[in-house]
Amino acid sequence: MGSSEEANKPASLYDSSSQSQPLLLKPPSIEEPNQPDEPESDPTQYLQISYNYGPRPFKDLPFVIFFVFVVLCTFGFGIFSVFHKNSNYSNLSSYKYDLNSNSCVRNSTFNGFYESRFDFYALSSSGSVFLKSLIWTLVVTLILSVPICFLLLLSLKHYTKQIVYVSLPFFVVIPIFFNVYWFVACTVSSSCSDAFPLVYRILVLVFVFLIIGIIVWIFVANWHRIELTVKIIGVASDALSKNLGLFVVIPLLTLGLVVYYAPIVVFLVFARLNGKIVPKESNGEYKCVWKQDSWVPAYYTLAILTMLWSLTIMVEAQVYVISGTVAQWYFTKEDAKPRRSIRSSLRHAFGPSSGTVCLSGLLICVVRFVRAIVDSARQEDVPGMVNLVLRCCVKALLSAVDFLNKFTINFVAITGEAYCTSARMTYELLKRNLLSAVFVETVSTRLLAGITFVLSAIYAIVVCAILKGASSMGVYSYVVAVLAWALLIIVLGFFVHVLDNLIETVYVCYAIDRDRGEVYRTEVHEVYSQLPISRNHRPPIAPIAPVV
């Protein structure tokens, strides 16, 4: 008789072992003696994939060792810059060239420090009302953003269709309102109308209306996918509501990155102080200038690259934690609850899979860096067929890397495999189950981004109205409202980021389910089974029954 754990598992086309068994389980084969010998195929092609609950070995270890080495170099040279600084940098303006000694000497009568300090205090006192209103508005916005996120999550979970269809008109109404408002306000104001002629105002007005028309066309062209997108967002919101601990862990990881950045920023400031004051000839006259030590530019490059790589690593680590947590929830029976799922995902992300996370972050960092160089070269418009061919080749290479990286870190969080193995197995998994290796349901991301924009815009209008009625800041109230809008949209953007990663993780889990012939989450199969049909056919088609 099997164990109770095996009895609770969903029906499968193959017999699977317990969760403590190895990750890849080969289904039983039936030998046919009369069949001719065939060449061996890829050993991972027909192997079952499951969540790896057991101990995971360290993968891609050289990359985490290399990252630690880079960080140690950054901190080591940074500490050296602190103790090797030249305190005369702040007094550079008090030095003058001495003809007798052919060097720069300090002028003791200089009193620039007190003048600059006086100007600072004068500036601070004049803008105290603006700063006070700005600080209070941003603090209140940050506090209110937490219940706004939870209310949005609950609304998307229970009233997804209503929220989406109510928000769609505002995607057009709010841009039209702001476009007409600034045009009328600038026309009424004499200073604005004098500085901005009527012809240019009309051109900007028409240009913005064209952009709004493009937005309307995008939604009309993708209208056949709205209904499916609503279901996808509803399923993802339900999964996120079952893993609310992610709203605590992910911000803490971001806060940890900020704390990690703080000493590097301090080191960059002190690195600038490493050098000396030397005379420099300019148009026959000598003046005193600051000359940095030769190693300072190299350190700046090292520190900035370290910060960029650390940023991409943290982004991939967050994706890993989200994927691991949601995958454990997905592969648990509906009447059960996974235990310590977030803790185990954190332990795996910064433990056995830390090298894989570092490798994925490095690839993303390199792709972003190369893409920025290509875009910069394109803006310079360098002529030549060779340059055009090189740009096309680089773009094709970057697209291939993006294609390779798609879903890889989600698969790593589920299986614990190495990066290259996970990339190959993910592609084979989706291809074997007739699923897209590039998840093209980007309508969900656009809809969520539109909803966050609408909520942030409404909040900014309310803030501006309150500031107009309760204070006399004048035009500065618009500045405070815009900054409050930016802060709220950043927080809601974090919410959309978590939800997007969760949608992709559920997609991979659904592919694993389909590959194993099991149904862990019926509601997920009812929605995700429509994805290939919804992308290829415009007419609505009834959902396909889940595989059992």
Automatic annotation (TrEMBL):
This protein's GO CC annotations:
plasma membrane
Is Lipid biosynthesis tagged as a keyword? no
InterPro entries, per database record = Choline_transptr-like
Ranges where the record places region Disordered: 1-44
Bilayer topology annotation: Multi-pass membrane protein
The text of the family note is: Belongs to the CTL (choline transporter-like) family.
Q: What is this protein called?
A: Choline transporter-like protein
Write the lineage as a comma-separated list.
Answer: Eukaryota, Viridiplantae, Streptophyta, Embryophyta, Tracheophyta
